[in-house]
Design brief:
globular; mainly alpha
Amino acid sequence: MAEHENVQGCRRRIKMDPSASDTLNVETIGNVEDTPEDEDPVFKENKPNLPLFKYISAELTRGYYLEHDEAKYTQKRDRVYAFLNIPKEMEVLMTYGFFLCMDAFLFLFTFLPLRVLLAFYTVLTRPCTVTSGGRILQPAQICDIFKMLILIVCSYLMCFLDFSMLYHIVRGQAVIKLYIIYNMLEVADRLFSSFGQDILDALFWTATEPRNKKREHIGIVPHLLLAIVYVFGHSVLILFQATTLNVAFNSHNKALLTIMMSNNFVELKGSVFKKFGKHNLYQMSCSDVRERYHYCVLLSIVVLRNMTELNWNFDHLWELMPDVVTVLVAEVIVDWVKHAFITKFNEIPADVYQEYRASLAQDMVSSRQKDAFSDHSDLVSRRMGFVPLPLSCLLFRTVWQSIKLPQNTVSAVIIILCYLTLTSFKVLTSIVLFGKACEYVKYAKKKAPQQRKKADYVRSKSFSGLPTKPETAVQTSESVSLYSKESLQSNSSVSLQSLGKDENAIIQQNVLPEKQAGESEGDKSKKSLSEIDRYTLCSSHIV
């Protein structure tokens, strides 16, 4: 009771004379804090009295002004616009890359046989003519002959496979087992593609290597046999993929097809919430282009096989088309969502897809020059991981078995007309692609100085200690043109916290990490888009 009176007396003295609070000792303060406020009669007397209706009125009429934080909301709106703009920019890249793959694929059926015939004509008409490398044929002609030889041999070997027997073997498996097998085939397809082009490049270099150099290879014949084994094995693997899809289309409950389509959405989980750089997104874009074209060819093979088994009953074709369209639409939607969120989380601008198009266009332009070091189809294979030889062998075998022509003059005329149609379509595609390539390259070269000036401006502001917008710095660092000699790196981490630092500290933040990265990674940090292939290691992982 005495302690309570002491506390009440202290509170009255503090209320009458605030300066008296300084004379209180620690024990008195501790006793005051330990006293419950609800039991204090003084607190009950001075407790604010807020009516319920007044509170409700305040909640209903209170307001706020968004213009007080204009920069934040403007940035959010720009992000929404960029998010919605990603599918459009990505589809332009996808369409251009899709027709690049088609151009490389049609080359094997149209111009490659003519180039081989010209090479043989050169050997027969000018047997004593020797080129600068000591050979009768040019290196490109030698590569064409080996491509045609591999295509003929593997297509002949595919004739010994019974498609009907493989279909019934796959159909007899359980649904879950087929789903696991299909995923394993997808992984194996990527592994085969990553190593297959290296096998073919090794064969072409071994066959065309200058003879004055010291021999450092096992011989042309072993390389040729290795290439034939690879192409045949990859063709069989793609055949199993097509057969699994065919079983999924022909199943009654469509459970397998639904599970396979859900595999595309599982891909979102493995890619959206990971850190992506500019080069990794480029690899993913090339992979998506190749995957989309690969699916189109596989679905064409499935439709062709079904029409053959049903004696070309077009009523069954309309039954298949909804499933085919569903698979393709699901693939497109997943690509849209995946790229939109990857660019959002990693703050990559939509303009980066224009650079990707310019990089692919530069490959096509450089392959048409006199001093080109590779054929355009080989450049597409390295850039996108698309090797057309195995797919061509499978498609040729499927068409040969599905379409039966009588052995007469009419069949020869039909074959010639089909060849002329494919050649005309290939010529038209090449002309349009080459025109677009020149347009994209000119636009990229015209835009490069503006991006360089913008990068210099942002970097000068960051060096001077002035705050820069994070999104501006990120866009500048990510949109450096592929034609620049080195990537200009702007510091997007300089914020309001750096205003109190001196200029030397800011320069150390900008310069030292760049030097350390250059010393630790060497030339990897200086790679441009033109040096990034489909399976190039970028930022410690391959997409």
